[in-house]
Amino acid sequence: MELLIFGASGATGRVLVQAALAEGHAVSAFVRTPGKLAIRHERLTVIVGDVADRQAVERTVAGHDAVLSCLGVGVPLKHDPAVVAGIGFIVDALQRTGPARLIYLSFLGVHDSRHQLGLLLGGIVVPLLLRHEVADHEAKERLIVQSGLDWTIVRPPKLSNGAATGRLRHDNGIHAKPLLPTMARADVAAFMLGQVGDTTYSRKAVSLLH
To answer: Which band of pLDDT confidence, cut at 50, 70 and 90, is reported for residue 75?
Structure first.
């Protein structure tokens, strides 16, 4: 498939790009700082732009089979209104030109998934320390849910580096077993790619845990 990945130069974005190329997809990587991507491949096209630039986003979206977003926050623990606006621009562009399929990386603790983290994370850490990031993700999720697109929102716990385990649970009724759950970015990337052609979680948010 022809895949477009926003946030491709971030820690998770780079893993997603590599995984998509390994699966044989053609990848367009939308990045603000191309030097951070450090991946070269004959099926990789690097597009330099700012997600807060509506025109740059609109020029990029058309002609792909699906769009995947790994856009994070510019400054941890702070609001990032530029990225919230950027998700709005992506949604608008998809509504105008397609494709209809959008896979968005959020995180566990947003909206109704908070109770799945347990008392420490769900009751204290997320609402207090991560409240700005949660608010931004919730704003972005609202834009996606209301879009009318064929979307899937993926909510993993804290991400870590390392090899894929191939073992994960995905559902909205699951709960974290360890006190501080983590998941390898490689596992999340594999799951996101699997959603491109899978309708199981079409127009749904799904939680991931080991």
So the answer is: low
